[in-house]
From TrEMBL:
<keyword id="KW-0805">Transcription regulation</keyword>
<dbReference type="InterPro" id="IPR005471">
    <property type="entry name" value="Tscrpt_reg_IclR_N"/>
</dbReference>
<dbReference type="Pfam" id="PF01614">
    <property type="entry name" value="IclR_C"/>
</dbReference>
<feature type="domain" description="HTH iclR-type">
    <location>
        <begin position="1"/>
        <end position="48"/>
    </location>
</feature>
<dbReference type="InterPro" id="IPR050707">
    <property type="entry name" value="HTH_MetabolicPath_Reg"/>
</dbReference>
<protein>
    <submittedName>
        <fullName>IclR family transcriptional regulator C-terminal domain-containing protein</fullName>
    </submittedName>
</protein>
<keyword id="KW-0238">DNA-binding</keyword>
<dbReference type="InterPro" id="IPR029016">
    <property type="entry name" value="GAF-like_dom_sf"/>
</dbReference>
<feature type="domain" description="IclR-ED">
    <location>
        <begin position="49"/>
        <end position="228"/>
    </location>
</feature>
<keyword id="KW-0804">Transcription</keyword>
<dbReference type="Pfam" id="PF09339">
    <property type="entry name" value="HTH_IclR"/>
</dbReference>
<dbReference type="InterPro" id="IPR036390">
    <property type="entry name" value="WH_DNA-bd_sf"/>
</dbReference>
<dbReference type="InterPro" id="IPR036388">
    <property type="entry name" value="WH-like_DNA-bd_sf"/>
</dbReference>
<dbReference type="InterPro" id="IPR014757">
    <property type="entry name" value="Tscrpt_reg_IclR_C"/>
</dbReference>
Length: 228
């Protein structure tokens, strides 16, 4: 799908070269059959009858189920929200939502090349065993992205998660930006995922203090995966 995070009908009509009325008719037909779903923000995404956005073991979750959880967390905390998973040994960003107050981080370096410098990446690395982590980092060197980026393997291992269970990035990926992440699992080892939020660095203490809300949202995603 050319628009993995969904797209409004007008954008899909332009991309397909179809009249808007025809596009709406096709979307309604596909929605009736369960192949697409219209989200509250007006975007159309793949429905539950099509392939899940990620799969490891038997766990699958579609964007139509993920997006409402992310939107709710964004509205509660006023931050940009991200959901990513490990798929075939690489980090895949499933969805991201933001708003006028806190825009999403400009991903000038991909998550796989910057796992050591992002809360999302640290959270996912922390869910791997030692062999899995060593293999991943052998393929993705610890690039120096900002003056605060951790490039020492031992220091990285010690800082994958704090005592409160939160993985943090304090300007390690981009100056002026901080991120917080928590794990998302399906309860049976079939899913390795991370739910994260980003904010301006000065807001980090307040956002971190709301860690329980982030964990509750992660638990909602975990339940969706367990039921898939």
């Amino acid at each position: 799908m050319a628009h993995p995070s969904g797209a409004p009908a007008k954008q899909l009509a332009r991309a397909a070269g179809l009249p808007l009325a025809t596009t709406y008719h096709l979307l309604r037909t596909l929605a009736h059959e369960g192949y697409v779903t219209k989200l509250p923000d007006g975007c159309w995404v793949l429905g539950d009858r099509l392939e899940g956005l990620y799969a490891r073991g038997r766990a699958q979750v579609t964007l139509s189920r993920v997006r409402p959880v992310l939107v709710s967390l964004r509205d509660e905390l006023g931050v940009a929200v991200y959901f990513a998973v490990l798929r075939e040994g690489e980090i895949s960003l499933v969805d991201v939502v933001d708003g006028p107050r806190e825009r999403r981080v400009d991903l000038w370096v991909g998550f796989n090349e910057a796992a050591h410098a992002t809360a999302v990446g640290k959270c996912l690395l922390g869910q791997l065993d030692e062999d899995g982590r060593r293999e991943y980092l052998a393929r993705h060197p610890l690039l120096d992205l900002t003056p605060y980026t951790i490039t020492d393997r031992g220091a990285l291992d010690r800082g994958l998660a704090g005592r409160d269970g939160l993985s943090l990035d304090r300007e390690e990926y981009a100056l002026g930006t901080a991120c917080v992440a928590v794990p998302v699992t399906d309860g049976s080892g079939g899913l390795v995922g991370a739910l994260a939020v980003s904010c301006r660095t000065e807001r980090l203490p307040r956002v971190r203090s709301e860690g329980r809300r982030l964990q509750e949202a992660a638990e909602r995603l975990s339940r969706l995966a367990a039921l898939s």
